[in-house]
Amino acid sequence: MNMTLSRRGFIFLLSALPFAPKSGLAQSLSTSGDPNRLFDDVDRRLLGNLCEQIFPKDEFPGAIELGVPGFIERCLREGHADWTGIYRAGFRSTEASSRSVYAKEFPELSFDEQTRLLERMQTGDLLKTDWPSVSAKDFFRMVRDHTLQGAYSHPKYGGNRNKAAWDMIGYYDFWVE
Amino acid sequence: MSLERVDAVIVGAGASGGVVAHELAHAGLRVVLLERGPQLNVKDFQLHDEMISNSKGHLFPAFNGLDHRHPREFRHTSADTFQKIFPEDGTYPLLAAVVGGGQLFYGALMWRFLPIDFRARSTYGTMEGSTLDDWPLSYDELEPFYDKAEYTLGVAGEDGDPFAGKRSRPFPLPPVDLQPGDLLVKKAAQRLGYHPFTVPLGIATQKFKDRNPCVRHPCCNGFICEIGAKSTMVTALLPSTLATGNCRLITEAVVKEVTTDGRGRLDGVSYFDKSGKLTNQPTRLVILAASATETPRLLLNSRSRWFPKGMGNQHDWVGRNLMDHIGPSVVGLFNEKTSDGIGPGPGIAINDFYGKNPGFAGGGVIYSRTEALPIAFANVRPPGAPMWGKAHKKFQRDYFRRQVRLWVPGEARPRFENRVDVSPTVRDAWGIPVSRITHSLHPNDYQLYEFFRTKMVDLLKEAGATEVISRPAGKGGVDAHQCGTCRLGNDPKTSVVNRYGQVHDVDNLFVVDGSLLVTAGGRNPALTIQALAFWSSDYIVRQWKAGSWGGRKV
Asked: What is the distance between the alpha carbons of residues B486 and B315, in angstroms, rounded to a whole number?
């Protein structure tokens, strides 16, 4: 009933990751093949664009500089393979909406055009036919939550490189290292 | 394999079960302590890590988010359909299946209830739609056990609350040092004529017995304290309990039912051991300490020809009156620094709105928190404010250490229809019928919520907040403060256990967890649950020594 206990939703449950508690119950959902590869170059570029929109570079580092896209890929690969399909479907729908709204591919949009498309994604104000398998709102919320988790979590998970997001807000974990 | 009979089996190695194990083992009884979760080696775990705490899944390992062996069902009212739920779902009542229980992760608020809490019906009168009642014991009777709990576990605090009951001794530990935001709230409360005092915490603010003092890490509420400064059964009770040689702790033991002999006499506890084998542990006494959502399940699942409706349930009160707290969480934004970026978080409290408010019954203690965690704070925004982009980053920078949160664990009305029973269809991985939860709010709960929301917004504004964020109440549901489902009482027709926690119609069966609470009180329940466990233990040991249950006369 209090705030700290009601934060749920699209949360990476890191208990499945190798650096999490050894419970004997944690299930490894690792995929075979290249252990470092989940998305192809097109999808990686798109994911980077989306993350950078959520956590853009200003006078402090943005999501890409912090390593957030890699954080998301790693969490999906090592613990949440079941969400990979949602991401891929969301990428295709994002591309479709970009073509419908701007008649351009998403990575070719200007930063501000991407921002406006994400604003419409957030409210679901996009053609439903471009989002056949995942809703724009749900996809937006998932990417938004995962990006901020990557930005603000411990650097050992792959995001928040050099603790730069913590330094930005004045959060200090004095047992790090 | 037939096991040797022991004197007592305790089900649940959490806050209350740990107390009873400690007291009985030290009194010389041979005890088996069963815990369905594992025992953690603290060093094996990623502790001060918000990603781990970020969901119910952090109550690892038995209840990690990928472990679907423990489903439940939930609905708000009898008009709704039950939904099957899992630990990561918002409606799943929080429950840490681990040696130490939820207290390992608690926010360490260790209040005593106020004297009026024990006279709830006398104070507020009867109310339609509520089973409000007085407790069958008084504050004065429980006081020696509050004292024992505070001195055994370690509680840091200060006198100065004019509404508190009398204490036989001062707090064993000095209060936590306040943060700048707490001081702003304290001065504002004084200007408004309230009576602020520093919160009591189950934290070693200085070296306590063999425990290290708190290092003020902000990852406190919701986290295990890896240096052992938090007062829990693991840090304060278990080592000496095991050292008596009288207590055997068995982990990953999933209890199925309490069993009876051929004459209907309780004689054992059946559980699935780590390997999945069903075992019966013969015993003279059984003490249930499995939580307010699991203890009633166990009683209701313990059916036989002598107990066709489950043990203790001949009047249909097992599982009734399920409660948690209802109260707003309100965040004030400041121009000045409120936090040095350290924990544990709680600071200043007031009891000025406890028990005599206009237009509704009940109340609660308001208290401040100044700590913040980065991911959680990303969701703290005024309505309509951007939740991402450059505006998100600016807000994080501006307010991460310039905010004060007030919360009130407001006293919800007990209601007969809010309950735990067992599902006729859903079973856990061991084939045991699971808990079904039905919970919604009483109209009085909404009035209380809105009253406190106004008072807390006003208090933060007086303290200098430039903006205050608050939200309206939700629809109910229970979480970490689940309580009330095996009510204490003198009348077997309107309660499950007597004033000592002894089940009315089964004299060798006790309940000692949060199920006992007649009313939820307007404050976190841990210390009261543990004081009651000391109170019940004292009764059990005295009866044992007088020869009850085949005990050894002394």
From this structure: 12
